[in-house]
Amino acid sequence: MSEKDLLYNTILARSFSKNEQKRLGYGAFIASLFFVFTLCTFFKPYLSPLPIVESQLSVDVGLRMLRISETHKPKALSSSNYTTFQNNITSNTTNTQRLNDTSLPKNHSDSFNRTTPTLISKEQVISDGNMMEETVKCKKQSRTEVCELNGDVRVHGKSATILTAITSAFSGNTTWHMRPYARKRDPGAMNNVREWTLKLVKNAERLENANFSRCVTNHSVPAIVFSLGGYSMNNFHAFADIVVPLFTTARRFNGEVQFLVTNKNQAWINKFKEILRSLSNYDLIHIDDEDETHCFTTVIVGLKIHPEYFRELTIDSSFSEYSMSDFRRFLRDAYSLRNAAVDLRRRRPRIMILSRAGSRAFTNADEIASAAGETGFEVVVAEASTGLARFAETVNSCDVMLGVHGAGLTNMVFLPENAVVVQILPIGGFEWLAETDFGRPAKGMNLRYLEYKIAAVESSLVRKYGRDHEIVRDPSAVIKRGWMAFKSTYLVQNVTVDINRFKPVLAKAFELLQKQSIFSKNEQKRLGYGAFIASLFFVFTLCTIFKSYLNPLPTMDTQLSVDTGLRMVRVTETHKSQAFNSNYTTTSGASESLISPTTQNNITSNVTNTQRLTSSEDDKLSVCNDTSLPKNYLDLFNCTTPTSISNEQSASDGNKMDETIKCKKQSRTEICEFNGDVRVHGKSATILSTITSAFSGNSTWQMRPYARKGDLVAMNRVREWTVKLIQNADHLENANFSSRCVRNHSVPAMIFSLGGYTMNNFHDFTDVVVPLFTTARRFNGEVQFLVTNKNQPWINKFKEILRRLSNYELIYIDGEDETHCFTTVVVGLNRHPEYFKELTIDPSYSEYSMSDFRRFLRDTYSLRNAAVSTGESLRRKPRMLIISRARSRAFTNTDEIANAAGETGFEVVVAEANTGLASFAETVNSCDVMLGVHGAGLTNMVFLPENAVVIQILPIGGFEWLADTDFGRPAKGMNLRYLEYKIEAEESSLVRQYGRGHEIVRDPSAVAKRGWTAFKSAYLVGQNVTVDIIRFKPVLAKAFELLQRRQSV
């Protein structure tokens, strides 16, 4: 039996003849096509338009043309919208004001300053015959003015001046003024906005002759200059005048733009920090106080806004590449808001009643809430004072917003689409204001809008003035007296809503929500696509079933060629035969070891009791078991010796010899430099670095970026970071944190910790400041600091040093949930590799020295004295600083010491290091001798001029080794003279406390053997010093003598 016969004997074949089966097949095919057509027609609104991503990559800054353009609509404004009320009470404009304080090139000043709500169009062009690119393009409209400057643009904040170089002659004015705030015709606002001067300079060389010249800070991204003055702290104006215009102006840069803020307003910045971070990947600059010149290739001065008057909270797509839908989508992303559209499935609709603490408050909010609850709403009563991020989340969780006319209603921008806005209009003729400020904007945001105009009896003004008073009876008469009269009368009233009158409005709002589709727009769109795909599958199934009855059909084969231009995939991998650079070897040698007194192993805070530090190759004691690097170098990487053992591992691309990763681990620190695509996620303490070649070692290890590695107490206070190597950038998509670079940086980064022993002045310098200097100085300020273990007091203390080493505001990386991306990241800080070399930079291990560091400090704190005057050049009494201590190891006879020093010939200063580092550094630098008991205060000797004298007082307890390690040798390394005075037992308060025969006084070594805690509590915390003046006078005389000697050449 043939196949056709088998098929014919099926149930279908027995039911229909062959001809009937064929007709049935064709009919089913046509029916399925009709079904698909019907589905497409029904779901057409939800199938288009599809999202479009536009990326503009080319930004050409070689510009040669100046264009000043304005466009004017000839159509007059609708007379129905502009009443007598408008001319008197709106704060947006006045009748006769002209912007006399601003002018553009003279031949266009008339049209530039004309105050008409229509749009005028004028152009002036300066061009180079060979180049048609634009150098300066200015557009002035009725509400704003914006200039884009390209080429060599220099911004000097202190003088409020912007210079732009042009290459061609220019017959018009080369200087004009701008106030970068988008409410141009309102003098009340513009008087609070700083005026900026824009100057065109014929060529770049003439910029050197300007009041400011050299570029101190160069930027690789465009800049936007805008003001936070005007009415910025009013929530309505904050959005209408700044946030929406800033979005339309800055969004096209995709975060690669630098904000320069004039009229600094920290409260505004704190309020809108999420928006600022979403629009710019860079910390904003408060430009007004900047005395340094910032240089850019593109600078935009001013912000774009809808060109028509009385179009608030609106973006007209015909004037902008964005819309209010784009803006609201941006807000949802910036604040991580969940609800794009109202969704009432499985819950009651939610209404927010906006509460106000001052004027225009509801006096019966509880009654309104009860009525809303009876209507079917879940009720939330809130005031917009909880922080914008939190309040935005609350608003976005609601379906209806109800409030009296006022700035609080501006928060409707956070409502989901199809939500309802109910605005309560007080008495006083608010209709036009209500419609302009919130009515039309709400509709433009795809929100439903309802109004409730209160009756006179619902206003507190009736109770205050009576029904027959002009204020209640004839608001138009008050309005004619001007804005101030209107404001003082009608904006200060409160509202008692008539619940019976108001219930139909609540019912209408509820009805509007119930009429909505049970599916959101996105769900409807997905449903449409799903139905379309299902219909295609249905057609495919029918065709398969009836295939034999549809053949032979005419066939047409169309082959679409997709040529990606790819012809070869090459995977190249090369290996360096030498794993470690020969420059990093053991330099101390086996013959060199550090010998310390018996107390060394017990009292030093640098190592633990059991760690004996020698340079013997047999010493394999590990002090960093909590850290591992790639496995094949684990042993060497974890060995800690006091010698300068330095191991390197490099992962490199075989085609390029530049190192991708270079890690160096020594006995006291570990440091890794990553190059290429490096991504830092603070919240998870993770660093991802891509490599292009195969890597046989461990691809994940941990680091604690603090330069006192062997000290477990210190390192336990340092956050641990995980480093991961990923062989291909595509694998970043699978990382635990978001793979996309949210903030891209154009400069290298350094990650270091402010944990450990920071806030002890000695450790501040030895563990952080000196290592930070040796690591960061080579970048000349072009480096971004990422701080882990945030320590604000430390940052405040050393802010001058941080600013000197980096041109960028540091980032507290621990709390950052955004991914920061760099091309170079350095984790950890360089430090002298040998133990017990404190406050020291050895030039054999660094390109810098302690002389360089002290010169850096003098420059940072503007210290005058590089060296003390000696011999005949000393034309004044030498100055001695006695460091006072408030608690332990304090002098108990400071006055006697000061008198003795004065008799020796010194001018005496007694000070405690608690006046702020900058002030104290200046005091120290003015002195020739520093005198103090062993302690962190002596670290301030770094500020002494060269050839000054340091006198360290040693309490009882076996301080000799500590004193020499911490301050003795470091002082000599700073070109300072060093003297010690070791007190006798009678000079210690411990004798009076315990007596001469007590073990603490008689045998300090026995106490030291019990460990660091016992030593610390006995000798560092428990004793003070009463100096024997007779014994001490020879030390004072020696210090004076050292200063009197002529400095040897």
UniProtKB/TrEMBL annotation:
Subcellular location per the Swiss-Prot or TrEMBL entry: Golgi apparatus membrane
Domain of life: Eukaryota
Transmembrane region(s): 24-47
Primary localization class, coarse: Golgi
Region Disordered, annotated ranges: 88-115
Protein's membrane topology: Single-pass type II membrane protein
Protein name: Glycosyltransferase 61 catalytic domain-containing protein
